[in-house]
Each structure stands twice: as C-alpha cells, then as structure tokens.
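Hi Y.,

Following your request, here is the sequence exactly as I used it, all 698 residues.
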Amino acid sequence: MTTETPVPAAKRVPTERVHHGDTVVDEYAWLATKDDPETISYLNAENAWAAARTAHLSGLRTELFEEIRRRTQETDLSVPTRKGGHWYYTRTVEGQQYGVHCRRAVRDGETEPPISAAGAPLDGEQVLLDGNLLAEGHDFFALGAFDVSPDGRFLAYSTDFSGDERFTLRIKDLDSGEPLPDEIPGTFYGTAWSADASVLFYVTVDEAWRPNRVWRHVIGTATADDAVVHAEDDERFWVGVELTRSERFVLIDIASKITSEVLAIPAGNPTGEPAVIAPRRQGVEYSVEHHGHRFLILHNDGAEDFALAYTSADAPGDWVPLIDHSPGTRLESVDAFADHLVLTVRSNGLTGLRVLPVGGGDTHDIEFPEPLHTVGLDANPEYRSGRLRLRYTSLVTPDSVYDYDLVTRELTLLRRRPVLPGPDGRAYQPQEYEQHREWAMADDGTKVPISLVYRRGTPRDGSAPCVIYGYGSYEASMDPWFSVGRLSLLDRGVIFAVAHVRGGGELGRRWYDQGKMLAKKNTFTDFVACARHLAKAGWTAPDRLVARGGSAGGLLMGAVANLAPDAFTGIVAQVPFVDALNTILDPSLPLTVTEWEEWGNPLADPEVYAYMKSYTPYENVAALDYPAILAMTSLNDTRVLYHEPAKWIARLRAVAPQGDYLLKTEMEAGHGGPSGRYDAWREEAFVNAWTLDRFDRA
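Below is the corresponding structure, written out as tokens. Let me know if you'd prefer a different format.
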C-alpha cells in the first residue's frame, strides 16, 4: 500500500428519502450529480487509489494481455453471408481496434462462401464501413444500426462516440460510396427499410431513455419532415422496428416485461397505416414472424413455456394452433423461411434448434455431441434457402460456424475461431480441458445447475482456486461460452463455474418467474447455495473462491456480499445495479418505469418497497468482514448509472472500513465498458490479474 495516494473518503451530505412512512438518510446521494466537479474529483480519486493498490500487478496484467493477444488471430475475416448478389462479412486487422465491414459480389456458379487465408481481404471486396476510420479522434466508438437496403444500394448506420447509446443515424450510397445529406441525431437501435428503399424507419427515445417513437424518413428529404408512425404513451412499453426476412412487412414491436403488441406495415406501402396483429392483453407476450400467407405467432397465452400459432397476414384475427405448449420445453423464437420453419428451443438447461419442414417431412432436432453447449441461428438473411447458417460453442469449443443442409441433414463446419499458441508456443488442445455439470441444493429444496470448466488434473481436494459467475435476471440465460481470456485462468489451475440461478431463463419461464418481483431473493440464495456446494464438493474453498457478475449480475454480487461474506475471498462487480431501490423509486431515471414489471413498483406498493429495501446492496451495507471488492463502472452508462457503485463503495468504506474496496471508473465509456477490442482485452487482464492476486493471498 502506498502512502502517497490517500484512501478516498466521500463527503457526507445527509439527504432524506421518505416513502410509506419510512425515512432513510442517504449521505451519498450527491454523487448522482454528474456535472458536479466534486463528483468527478471523487471518481478520479477512486481511480488513483485503484491504480495505486494494483500497481504491483502491472507486470501480470501485461502478461495476461499478451496471452489474450497471442492466442487471438488479430487479422481475421468472418464467414461471408450471402444476401442477394453479394457476400457480406467483417474483417479485423492486427493493430486496429474495430472491424471493417465489407461485401463482395457473388460470382457466376459460386454457391459456397469464399474463405480467405489468414483473414486477408477477399479479391474484389468493397469496404462499406471502416470502424477504425470512424473512430479516429474519439476515445469511444460504437455502431448502433448497420442495415443494408433490400436492393443493396444504401447502408443505414448509426454511431455513438460517448457510450451513452444516443446514436446519430446516417445513410451511405453504396453505389457512389458517398454519404447522403440525410443525418438524424438522437436515435436508438433499430431500423427498417421499405421494399423499394425509398423510406427508412427508425426509433427515438424519451427523456427517460425509453424507446417510445417509430419514425418514417423519406430518403433525400429534410429530417424535419419525418413523420411519427407510432408514439407509445404507456411508460411501461418499449418500441422497436424491423423488416421481416421475407421483406414483405415492416413490424413495429411494442413490449413491456410481460405484455406485447405488434403492428405491421406492408413494406411495399410504407406510408400505409400500421395494422394491429393482436391487441395487447395484460400478461400476454407474443412475437411475430411473416411466412407466406400467414403471420406466425409465438405466444404465452395459456402456455407458460410458449406455443406457436398463426393468423392470416391479409386480415389478422384468431390464432390457429400450430405447435402446442409443452411444459419444460421453452420455445424462445421462430424463424421463417420459404420451405421450413426453425424453432429455437430450450430444454434441460440447454439450447437447441428444431426444424419444421413446410409441406411434408419430419420435424427434427439438429444434434450435437457435447453434453454442455450453446447453439443458435447465425445470420440467415435469405428467405429462400436450402441451408441454415448456425453458430455453436461450448466451454471448451471455440465459436464455430456451420451450414446445415435441410435436405441431407448434414452439418458442415465452415469455420472454428482459431486459438493460436500462447506465449509458451503450445497449441490449444480442447481435450486438455473438461466441462462438467453439477447441481446445488437451494434453501427451498430446488436443484440449481452449475456449469464448470477446468484443466484436466485439477485437484478436487478444495485447494483449487475458482471463479463463480452469475447473472439471474430478465430471463437471460448464461449459456456455455468459450473465452480466450479465460484460458489464462484455467492454465493457472483456476476452475471457472457458472451458477444458473433463478431469475435467468435456463430452465424455462418458471425458472425466471421464481427469481423476480417478490421472489427475487431466490436469485441470491441460489448463488450462495452454489458457492457453498462447490466448497463442500471439494472443487474449491471459500478462501479460494471469487464471485463475478455484471449489471443485474452486479446486484447479485452486492447482495451475496451482504448475505454470505464468508463464502468468498473476492467479488468483482461490473457496472453493478447495487442501488436498486433508489433507482426504481425514481421514475425520471432511464428505464425505471419499464423495470417495475421486473422488480415491482416500490413507489405504489409498500410490500415491494420493504422487500426491495431488505435486499438492495447499498441499503444493507453493514459492519461485516467483507471479502475484497472490485467495482467497475462507466461514467456515461445509461443503463446502470455510475453513481450506484460509487455510492456503494463510499458506504462500504464508511461502515466497514477494514475492508479492501476498489472502484474503477471508465471516464469515456458506456454500459459495455471500453469499446475497442484491445481496450477490452486490457480490462479483462485487469480483472483477471486482480482475481489471481486474491488467490495468491489465500
């Protein structure tokens, strides 16, 4: 510890909060004032403290960064995807932070995607957008929209240079290579073209950062003349816009956490009035896919894990059942092609793809050999195709792209992301690692799955260090994924575990429902049960276990720190939602009202208020012997505001001053952290170095 860098101490300014007869004094509420010089000064002081406390890890961070870099094929090219008369793909170049988006014309007789050696540009390529050129002069860069018109002439794209996810939308003429004068600031994700590319639909947000309006822009006209196609006044609902794969309809998706409504506009008549496919009904969720004469409806009306129906595309009305509800098999999405449908399903905690031929043929699942894996559709823009492009990975198998022949049912591996030899010169060998599924017993008797990956020969006597990762909200599933950066941990004897806690969607809709609203504490107790199970089963020990999670998973980290500080030696909380009650009490903040159907409404319901107060990490900091905590945030994050972890760390220091707490704030980034790939690798190296240091102290 250095004597030159003082431990940050945030000033205390008592601010009262009164709800339902309960008065709370918040001494750090002032940190929410982003433009206050004292706020920035405090964040900078925390950054200086974090730098000083981790200065001894500089060499290890460099080593870990170099391991990621050396194992990554830096000059690379994605598998080209055919759309119309072109192959579309993205290249990366060694030394450059961002991708280069390209296309190349399909040549006579060419049916297979062209693959270049070592990521070299394809002969005859056209560069559509170079992220490195766009990012010049900016500390942060992100693309929002990237949408080529149906005729291949125009590219709609949007950029964010601060991380606040407010994008400026532009249009590029791909024939001339020149940008059009059309420029629309303040847009959100999502665009859709009309059939003739004369009109572009886009989305904007309200003051609470809720996507609430869909607009119609006529190419070549002033943006001041753009028309609002749909304005959503109900603050619980978001809107989005998309063009169907058939290119027949523009769909406006309107959804809260538990209720949906979809509007359709013929893509050939973009000025037409949107037609409601089915009016919203509270608690009924549905999504729409166009297929020939019908709209396919994936819904939960009387079907907890969803069922599939259809209605007329010409005159939407009653829903005709197509696939009945099957409890335990969650239907997650349906994709329509001219001659087949593809369902993405989830069963027994694993994803799968189910093919339904149209007009005859057997419904069948695409089989994969590994017991733990993740599979899903990749880009499949062509409506008429005899092949499926899919993506596959596992805890030991790098990201892989396959084509699936719908007639022969053969899988063809097009590309597996290469893992180059590390600094020791040894090639990656998947057989040197094992993946395993364990089940922990929760407090209420529920079995909670845990996925593990580790190097063969790792001891089972409690001596192995372990990282346990969790999320557990919004029905998001933490399905098995491969990570080059994780290899640096595994090769040092670290076990990596994923706790599939309730609140996620791994075991279907009920798994989600049992970890939200007034059942939210199940998420936290499940995670603690998983940590205790790993120690009891000899995988690790509490003084060898580091927990990690981000965003809503950061709420999980803060909650378990209060609930079971003895279960961990360290906790990594990235962009953590640790001041949840104060945030959900403030409807003026981004996303608050839309979140009430996930957490409850503590403004209106005293039971929800008391329940949230009983688990929110910031509210429950106590004089405990906390594990070491590394909190990471971004100043321009609009999803979880920077002041949540800032307040949390300040209160931890004040209430439990003997603890080891670090706060690292990216001053030019958003929710996803640094935007460039090298910067992201450095951040991962920072986290992993801190984690390994915790193990060394055990």
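The two ends are 18 Å apart (CA to CA).

Thanks again,
Q.
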